[in-house]
């Protein structure tokens, strides 16, 4: 293996052999670290762009080229492109091609070439390969070429062939191709010269020469190539103000608190219309009630982004509160809407590849992307995004309810709140503040917003808070050096403590990780200071530097400090006022049987876990929820027996019949159940309460069965609990017998049941079918349960009978059977029921 380095000999740079040990590709050393290039295939043209990464790329790139051969005829070289390359390859067939990185000039004493990559532009729309093997050849020597092994984690080559099928992106690439063609027409033998700016991986190609076609390349328009994501984009940022007092937003993925904070800020600023025009909540539509000052308003909810944009054409800001899993797709959908101008992505952890696509699309379409991993932004006295600047108390303390004179931009949302407060203490406050987000690839950069502020007459000075990691701050350095910024900039890059650690440290943000000396906070602060920014010696001195800069501008007459105004009082939400003890409010519902406010639900004060641990049954749960006490086991078991005995009585009784007919009509379970339950009443299953009521009254008054029955007869009232259509003296109801046997065995007293049996004896003397039925048995025995348990007062017993507790047992029990009939009919797939004609008496 041979180490290759660039040597300058009499002003001519060549590749020379440096040592026999290795090929020099160490990160941080002087040679090649990696290569990125992309092939964009158009119907009749192919655009290639590429960039070699390394500390001395200026020396190395002129010696490297990309060679393309036709796979069907490897001996034929179709094209050779020097690096850095931003070129067009015409007549490149849609077929397989062989791509190889090679030394460019034969004058080099040593040459190297990569392995050959096969790229099928037609069948493989996206291809990635790398790292590659390299061969190193020593020219003018007799020794054979020595193969070099893979450069692990060092040399990365991305070869991507994109067949453009997305119409909007296709238009972008065609426009880029037209721009290249026009520029080559101006100077056909001159290559455009890329150079690295801003964050690593961005290439900037500037239009040069006279501009004769402003539709293709107007003043200040640059073509960016991003070698990390390999997408083309136009640099359209700069311009000026992006928010105003009339700005309205669409809020994606409903969150009540951030939206209410936006509306409270609107009221604080004296806006006439809410800043949230609509809410997009996938899968739901309608309205959400929120407060705009003292007035309760209804904000429309849409299920689709397109529908929301169509319904609210004046809303040009899209605030995306989606999770990192779906934020990219929803943001791209918003960017494609013609009405949307600004997109803010709150989520952090959005995949970097997705973020790069969003960045490229936003810049190509002259839209502003804030985030990901951002709290958003704010224009004082006009508009704010979501939770920017925190609570209303903090907003008032930071004087954000009215505009100041300072433009502020930061990577950190949390530190933005701190700086809003700092700036408010020593200046007249901010005019606009932006947190670009802490991810590695923010949608907009520090310099993007500083250049915007520079174009805004309301902003008199800028405050910038950067952080270690990445090279975003160097784009600001370049702008300062190029004289693009004419207003004072006070800047600080946090993370100077990183040097105290022996190893590299990842701070809070994904991008807050120094990748070398240039990305350290110290290097950035020094570069900003040398470029003309006001940079303090420490963060502690940052406030003083801001204050001194502001006061100097005031002395020079460039700033007329904004006078303070008294903001309106925001009405306090009732729940917070109640919590703080400021108001009293009546409740609307009283509940004494259950409580779900703790760690687990409680039934009559008994935790759910205790119910399970003690092996409580359905009867025990009923005793807790119905009677608000834990009854003895014989009582709860009697309740369970009643439920079992009354669960069903065949398909012919009125309740079951109704349920069956309804189920066969195709109705759902609830409808079928309810149709059967609605038949329960005085003539079917609803006589338990009446039986208990009349038996109790007669027994307590000491009436004989004769007096009781004859008295009811005189009143024209049938004795409830007595009589059956099928059962008789000789065919007793087995259910009644089972209940009586259980009561005799377990109940301490059965006086009401014995009175009911005496009444039955008298009624049987009148007719053979006037037997004690199950309603009468349950009614009388329940009276014995309540009275004999000793757990209920006379008043409570009367109240239980009067309210209708006992009928509740029948309703609960019979629901089991009615549900069973519903399932039975649906399982059997029974057709619509029609009653037969022969079973109907048709008469006049």
TrEMBL record:
Domain ATP-citrate synthase/succinyl-CoA ligase C-terminal: 409-534
MF terms in GO: ATP binding; ATP citrate synthase activity; metal ion binding
Gene Ontology cellular component terms for the protein in this record: cytosol
Reaction catalyzed: oxaloacetate + acetyl-CoA + ADP + phosphate = citrate + ATP + CoA
Cross-referenced PROSITE patterns: SUCCINYL_COA_LIG_1, SUCCINYL_COA_LIG_2, SUCCINYL_COA_LIG_3
Alphabetical UniProt keywords: Acyltransferase, ATP-binding, Cytoplasm, Lipid biosynthesis, Lipid metabolism, Magnesium, Metal-binding, Nucleotide-binding, Transferase
EC number(s) reported in the record: 2.3.3.8
Example GO BP: fatty acid biosynthetic process
Source domain of life: Eukaryota
Domain (DUF7152): residue spans on this chain: 45-141
Subcellular location field: Cytoplasm, Cytosol
Keyword Transferase on entry: yes
Alphabetical list of InterPro entries matching this protein: Cit_synth/succinyl-CoA_lig_AS (IPR017440), Citrate_synth-like_sm_a-sub (IPR016143), Citrate_synthase (IPR002020), Citrate_synthase_sf (IPR036969), Citrt_syn/SCS-alpha_CS (IPR033847), DUF7152 (IPR055576), NAD(P)-bd_dom_sf (IPR036291), Succ-CoA_synthase_bsu_CS (IPR017866)
EC main group: transferase
PANTHER family: ATP-CITRATE SYNTHASE
Subunit structure: Heterooctamer of 4 alpha and 4 beta chains.
Family: Belongs to the succinate/malate CoA ligase alpha subunit family.
Protein name: ATP citrate synthase
Protein species of origin: Musa troglodytarum
């Amino acid at each position: 293996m041979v180490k290759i380095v660039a040597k300058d000999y009499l002003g001519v740079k060549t590749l020379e052999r440096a040592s026999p040990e290795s090929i020099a590709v160490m990160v941080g050393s002087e040679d090649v670290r990696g290569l990125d290039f992309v092939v964009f295939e158009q119907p009749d043209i192919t655009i290639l762009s590429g960039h070699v990464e390394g500390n001395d790329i200026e020396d190395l790139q002129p010696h490297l080229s990309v060679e393309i051969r036709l796979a069907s005829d490897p001996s034929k070289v179709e094209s050779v492109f020097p690096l850095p390359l931003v070129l067009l390859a015409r007549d490149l067939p849609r077929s397989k091609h062989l791509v190889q990185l090679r030394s460019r000039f034969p004058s080099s004493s040593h040459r190297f070439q990569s392995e050959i990559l096969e790229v099928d532009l037609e069948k493989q729309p996206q291809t990635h390969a790398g790292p590659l093997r390299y061969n190193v050849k020593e020219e003018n020597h007799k020794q054979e070429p020595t193969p070099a092994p893979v450069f692990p984690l060092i040399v990365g080559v991305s070869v991507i062939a994109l067949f453009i099928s997305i119409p909007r992106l296709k238009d972008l690439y065609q426009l880029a191709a037209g721009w290249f063609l026009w520029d080559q027409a101006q100077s056909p033998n001159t290559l455009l010269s890329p150079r690295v700016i801003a964050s690593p991986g961005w290439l900037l190609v500037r239009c040069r020469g006279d501009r004769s076609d402003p539709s293709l390349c107007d003043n200040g328009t640059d073509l960016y190539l991003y070698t990390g994501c390999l997408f083309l984009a136009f640099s359209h940022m700069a311009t000026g103000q992006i928010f105003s007092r009339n700005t309205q937003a669409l809020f994606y993925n409903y969150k009540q608190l951030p939206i209410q904070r936006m509306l409270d800020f609107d009221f604080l600023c004296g806006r006439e219309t809410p800043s949230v025009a609509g809410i997009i909540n996938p899968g739901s539509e309608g309205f959400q009630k929120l407060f705009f000052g003292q007035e309760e308003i209804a904000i429309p909810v849409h299920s689709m982004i397109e529908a929301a944009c169509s319904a609210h054409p004046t809303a040009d800001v899209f605030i995306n509160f989606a999770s990192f899993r779906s934020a990219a797709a929803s943001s791209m959908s918003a960017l494609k809407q013609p009405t949307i101008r600004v997109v803010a992505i709150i989520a952090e952890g959005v995949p970097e590849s997705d973020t790069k696509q969003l960045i490229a699309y936003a810049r190509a379409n002259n839209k502003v992307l804030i985030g990901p991993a951002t709290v958003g932004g704010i224009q004082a006295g006009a508009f704010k995004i979501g939770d920017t600047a925190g609570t209303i108390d903090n907003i008032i303390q930071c004087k954000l309810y009215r505009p100041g004179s300072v433009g502020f931009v930061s990577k950190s949302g949390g530190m933005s709140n701190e700086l809003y407060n700092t700036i408010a203490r020593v200046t007249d406050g901010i005019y606009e503040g932006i947190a670009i987000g802490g991810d590695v690839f923010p949608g907009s950069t520090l310099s993007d917003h500083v250049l915007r502020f520079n174009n805004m007459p309301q902003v008199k000075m800028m405050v910038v808070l950067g952080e270690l990691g990445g090279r975003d701050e160097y784009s600001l350095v370049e702008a300062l050096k190029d004289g693009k910024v004419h207003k004072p900039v006070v800047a600080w890059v946090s993370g100077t403590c990183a040097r105290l650690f022996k190893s590299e440290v990842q701070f809070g943000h994904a991008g807050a990780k120094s990748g070398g000396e240039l990305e350290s906070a110290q290097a950035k602060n020094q570069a900003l200071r040398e470029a003309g920014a006001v940079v303090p010696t420490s963060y502690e001195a940052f406030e003083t530097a801001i204050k001194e800069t502001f006061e100097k501008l005031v002395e020079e007459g460039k700033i007329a400090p904004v006078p303070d105004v008294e903001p309106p009082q925001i009405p306090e939400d009732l729940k917070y006022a109640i919590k703080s003890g400021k108001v009293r409010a009546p409740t609307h519902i009283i509940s004494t049987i259950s409580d779900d406010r703790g760690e687990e639900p409680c039934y009559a004060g008994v935790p759910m876990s205790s119910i399970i641990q003690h092996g409580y049954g359905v009867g025990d749960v009923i005793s807790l929820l119905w009677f608000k006490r834990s009854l003895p086991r014989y009582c709860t078991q009697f309740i369970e027996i009643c439920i079992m005995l009354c669960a069903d009585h065949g398909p012919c009784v009125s309740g079951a019949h109704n349920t069956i007919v309804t189920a066969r009509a195709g109705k759902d379970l609830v409808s079928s159940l309810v149709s059967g339950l609605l038949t329960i009443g005085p003539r079917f299953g609803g006589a338990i309460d009446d039986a208990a009521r009349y038996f109790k009254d007669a027994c307590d008054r000491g009436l004989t069965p004769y007096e009781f029955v004859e008295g009811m007869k005189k009143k024209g009232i049938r004795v409830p609990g007595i009589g059956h259509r099928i059962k008789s003296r000789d065919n007793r109801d087995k259910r009644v017998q089972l209940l009586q046997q259980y009561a005799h065995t377990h109940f301490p007293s059965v006086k009401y049941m014995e009175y009911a049996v005496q009444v039955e004896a008298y009624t049987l003397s009148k007719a053979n079918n006037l037997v004690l039925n199950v309603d009468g048995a349950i009614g009388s025995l329940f009276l014995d349960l309540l009275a004999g348990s000793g757990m209920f007062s006379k008043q409570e017993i009367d109240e239980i009978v009067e309210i209708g507790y006992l009928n509740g047992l029948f309703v609960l029990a019979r629901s089991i059977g009615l549900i069973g009939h519903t399932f039975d009919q649906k399982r059997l797939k029974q057709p619509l029921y029609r009653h037969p004609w022969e079973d109907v008496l048709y008469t006049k």
